[in-house]
Amino acid sequence: MNYSQLLSEIGQLNASLHQKDFLLTWDKTENELRLVLLAAEALKCLHGQNISAQCFETGLAVSQFRDNSTRTRFSFASASNLLGLAVQDLDEGKSQIAHGETVRETSNMISFLTEIIGIRDDMFLGAGHTYMLEVAAALDDGFKNGVLPQRPGIVNLQCDVDHPTQSMADLCWLKEHFGSLEALRGKKIAMTWAYSPSYGKPLSVPQGIIGLMTRFGMNVALAHPEGYDLIPDVVQVAKKNAAASGGQFTEGTSMDEAFKDADIVYPKSWASYQVMGRRTELLRKNDKDGLKALEKECLGQNAHFKDWECTEAKMKLTQGGKALYMHCLPADITGVSCKEGEVQDSVFERYRIETYKEAGYKPFVIAAMMLTNRMQNPLAVLENLMKRKQPRIFS
Amino acid sequence: MNYSQLLSEIGQLNASLHQKDFLLTWDKTENELRLVLLAAEALKCLHGQNISAQCFETGLAVSQFRDNSTRTRFSFASASNLLGLAVQDLDEGKSQIAHGETVRETSNMISFLTEIIGIRDDMFLGAGHTYMLEVAAALDDGFKNGVLPQRPGIVNLQCDVDHPTQSMADLCWLKEHFGSLEALRGKKIAMTWAYSPSYGKPLSVPQGIIGLMTRFGMNVALAHPEGYDLIPDVVQVAKKNAAASGGQFTEGTSMDEAFKDADIVYPKSWASYQVMGRRTELLRKNDKDGLKALEKECLGQNAHFKDWECTEAKMKLTQGGKALYMHCLPADITGVSCKEGEVQDSVFERYRIETYKEAGYKPFVIAAMMLTNRMQNPLAVLENLMKRKQPRIFS
Amino acid sequence: MNYSQLLSEIGQLNASLHQKDFLLTWDKTENELRLVLLAAEALKCLHGQNISAQCFETGLAVSQFRDNSTRTRFSFASASNLLGLAVQDLDEGKSQIAHGETVRETSNMISFLTEIIGIRDDMFLGAGHTYMLEVAAALDDGFKNGVLPQRPGIVNLQCDVDHPTQSMADLCWLKEHFGSLEALRGKKIAMTWAYSPSYGKPLSVPQGIIGLMTRFGMNVALAHPEGYDLIPDVVQVAKKNAAASGGQFTEGTSMDEAFKDADIVYPKSWASYQVMGRRTELLRKNDKDGLKALEKECLGQNAHFKDWECTEAKMKLTQGGKALYMHCLPADITGVSCKEGEVQDSVFERYRIETYKEAGYKPFVIAAMMLTNRMQNPLAVLENLMKRKQPRIFS
């Protein structure tokens, strides 16, 4: 789609995300999601044509990473910079932010000249999303009471429940790959567990995928070994979404079954809901021996499921043997980044460039979330950026 | 006051801070202080009207935090960004900067394209202010000898002696709250020690408050338990200021006495001058056992003064029972952030939003210090920014 | 030279560095090196005249420091900011980047909106330059396959082989000091080892100096105690360069011999090639005892050569007793930063300001490397920046 088509589609949506935090995709209407996808594509288009998308002369984008991140950190920094915001990282050091009171205060203290706050908080089950809501309430309170001249928007950079910047980037990529959102209708996507020699990986990616892809009439097949459940509430969300969108959602315990005739496969390791719950308690108690014991137990359990690997044989089960392989990266690649992992090296290598392109949408998706949050009329802004035609690189 | 009134007042001051480091408020004339207050208000006004205050196309603002900071770090970053400067943090790691020679060198090495250097150095009594003077001399030397194309300005982000960005933000807030600087004349402010379950808090906030508020004809009542003295030189400064400005300065050992009929109360914990001196020596020797013993001794001493809490009963002693409560934040709030602390929860909660507004002036005060340091004619710059009317947010 | 002379000289070079990584000076033609020198001078000239050199509205400059750095970090940040790029640091934490596969991936993941990647990797002999080539290949692959909308340029901020931003800044300084590159022809520069109470200093500075200064007809005298060899391949490069440029290159084991009649002296400590090889192995094995033993052995060995100090007596041997003293800083100054070091305090003090000026070219050299890498026609950009005459500081 060219730029004017994208803008024309945005105009038809009649959707607004102005001043709405982006925490969970299932809090958003279908048209709000479409708005983000189209705005991301429009921003990518501007960048590709060397047209500046800078729409903030000054303003801060605060990032708070309560877990390690390189990929999302760079995407957030790129998105902020693309729009003209300067990144300021909130490094909590040793948890000065411990209870509600101080979250309320800190949220205001970092926000006097801030437009966007991006938060990653995925370590503790039951905590990340709750924390973001707490920050949101604090910002509402500060803005209402005249403390803050603007109410910064919040972008969820991964919590315990959802990973919307990932799943929306994935959806952008699927839209590009299959030509349109409409083309995804009826397509089967296998979101499956996969073996990994590590443990404790968050649930937010698979949850994000089943929560989002069920919105667009896809046939979402979730599969994992027994005991590797996701948060039950999110599974319910996926079921409801599928029913509403005319799609399907199934949950099973066979990777082969999920892969059968799949158009897309997304094999990725995660810990089980129950394990993450136990881990959360141990982390909170800072019980190192307990954590070590749990890790050992879990790795032992994982080891029973080494056949949950995305091999060439498994790929043969998919639609024409040619399903699109997806991953949020980095993948555990057998013989490359580990001895035995989530995916066979030859499979990964065949789709490597595609997974990079998938990741390449993330900066633009985050920028789109920022733009639609801050601007009352993002369509007008996108139109005016094109009219302004300020070259991004001077020559 | 509206923007043109602010500018008109600036015009009448006939004051300049061009190329003058902002290290101590008592090094500045009254009109120089007024210049900063008015410039801060003008910048806040521009921001509130979505008018860009960016006056640097490029340039660095270097920050050096020799002690933890979130609040001031964000204020410094916000101020830099507001004017168009990019923040670059100097993280010394393990004290590469150890003696005079290397301070001289490093100060130049970080300054080739630097406009402002903000320094927090409040851990060692007798060291922080001295360090800033050393950096200043190194920059003078580099500029004079043609090493540096410009002589960066220094902003004290808290030293062992003063905390001017805090006290000036406090004064901005008092000006807003009481309507004018003139309205502060004769008002009683109680700067009192308060109990805290921690030890080693810097003296710079109370010192900054008594050093600044005595400039404007206020009645400043300093109170603390015996043994919790401030640096004697600064107390002398406060006495002289009060005499010169037609205000009052008293020092006592009763919180009740200080609170009596006060219009403003500022109860805040600090270590004593003597303790900070002993602590400095132990820190220098890296004597961990000594530090632990001193902490224990001090916490024991503190514990005798748990009644130095800003309770509802104490607030009743103040002018109409309604003194304005102030704090530099974060406060130790009884039952909220600690078991027993500086302030009763209901008192803090009643004034919480006010303390946040107080803090909200800090980014603009720092930006005003930067602007007045860098610009030969900050009034013209402020006029021209308004004429330029570049929207901060493009739409 | 004034700005138009600089631009006129650039025009006569007929050289381009567009899309060419800057890893080693000896990979570049003489005119390509001249292009960087002239562009650096032109950018310095713009800055001195308060004319903005910002030519990127948005875009990231990624830095990756695999070794400590303050000086180069600030130079890189200054250069990026001068051109309008925002710095984003890649902090690897605990070596997530372990093998080729992941370098390939990470290089792409950080590059979606990135213009320049600056890398310091000088700890491991045989690794740093290799790593940069690996990143380069990954970027080529990503760009060729449509993953990256642009192919970021790489600037070597010090590797195991060369330190081109240092040596080129040094050359800028020599050009200023002696009036022209032509004036350097026949001048003798003594690049000598010097005693230091530390060990393990990289070889890249002396290698960079002998590799670059031999390009311009200088008489380069390398001297070091026996056993303190540089990488043999680089010594070969220096020999070939000297032969080609009509200069001279000698290698000896006497500091006095090297200093004799020298116009320039560059006394600086380094570890020997063999020691760095052993150290690399031990670092790779994380063999702490082995490293400690090696350090002890090496310091013992160093101690035999305490007379390799740049004293007043040694300076007397040089051309008129007045050779220009150079250092990449920080120097180990006897009686100032250490008991016994590379240089006598009075010698250093006499040349201190000169060494600072030498360092002052680094931000502009890095900016010139960025500019010439990104711009198809850097001459036109420099012309147009002067025509645009956008003040860097608004007034």
Protein model, in words:
The structure is a homotrimer of 395-residue chains. Chain A has 395 residues and is α/β, with parallel strands linked by helices. Chain A folds into two domains: 3-162 and 362-388, Aspartate/ornithine carbamoyltransferase (Rossmann fold, 3-Layer(aba) Sandwich), CATH 3.40.50; 164-359, Aspartate/ornithine carbamoyltransferase (Rossmann fold). Chain A is built from 15 helices and nine strands. Chain A starts with a helix and ends in a 7-residue tail after the last helix. The interface between B and C is large, with 39 and 37 residues.
Q: Work out the oligomeric state of the chains in this entry.
A: homotrimer
On the 0-100 scale, what is the average pLDDT of chain A? 95
Tell me the name of the CATH class of the largest domain in chain A. Alpha Beta
Flag low-confidence runs of chain A.
none
Profile the largest sheet of chain A. Answer: 5 strands, parallel
How many DSSP helices of chain A?
A: 15
Structural class of chain A: alpha/beta
Alpha-carbon distance between the two ends of chain A? 28 Å
CATH topology of the largest domain in chain A: Rossmann fold
> Beta-sheet strand percentage of chain A?
5-15%
Total E-strand runs of chain A? 9
What spatial form of chain A do the alpha-carbon principal axes imply? Answer: globular
